[in-house]
Specification:
single chain
Length: 205
């Protein structure tokens, strides 16, 4: 659901809030990770965690990750890959979480003695849940603030183009795959034109 992607249509908040989606699968192991900040996994038997996960309606609220110089992937002196990350853009995210929480009020079958009770918790994904890494080689017009130019070519190298998710300036609230594919096709057309190449006779343009 993208009704709140750009702003709150009800008014009162004109900045992007993000995207809400239903998770098709929740495992006991994932649930244990989500509650590990306040309930050690050792205290939750696997059978209990799996049973709870199977009975949960899981929603994912995703908000845009804004550019932050200190959020980066780096290599330590001893050769280890290290990910530095701090959450940002939390006001819009918290508003969207509250919007989802409020919208679920009332979805209870009061005629049933058990289903009239429900348990609900919210948590930020921990670092191990990070997916769709973006922006590590972002593009732009200024070599001082970007690695690639507008055609995803390295500012300082003439024969290096980067067309994976690295070129993103910030992380969107939706899966980046289609945007990545569209950009790769755009850069491919640019390279064909730049190199003066032509499609083989009979091949589609």
């Amino acid at each position: 659901m993208n009704d709140f992607y750009w702003k709150d249509p009800r008014g009162g908040f004109d900045l992007p809030m993000g995207h809400i989606q239903l998770l098709e699968y929740m495992s006991g192991q994932t649930l244990e990770g989500e509650v590990s900040d306040w309930l050690p996994p050792a205290l939750v038997p696997d059978t209990l965690a799996n049973a709870a996960a199977q009975r949960m309606l899981s929603m994912l609220v995703i908000s845009e990750d804004l550019p932050a110089p200190d959020n980066r992937v780096r290599v330590t002196p001893d050769g280890r890959i290290c990910l530095d990350y701090q959450h940002n853009n939390l006001e819009g995210h918290e508003r969207l979480v509250k919007t989802l929480r409020d919208s679920l009020n009332g979805f209870v079958d009061h005629a049933h003695p058990i289903s009239q009770h429900h348990f609900q918790f919210d948590s930020l994904l921990p670092l191990y849940g990070t997916a769709h890494q973006l922006g590590t080689v972002r593009f732009g017009n200024d070599p001082k603030s970007s690695v690639l130019d507008a055609w995803c070519k390295a500012h300082e190298l003439d024969n290096l183009y980067v067309v994976d998710t690295s070129f993103f300036v910030s992380s969107a609230s939706v899966n980046p795959t289609l945007t990545t594919v569209a950009n790769a096709m755009r850069v491919g057309d640019h390279l064909i034109e730049r190199l003066g190449a032509h499609a083989p006779a009979g091949a589609p343009a």
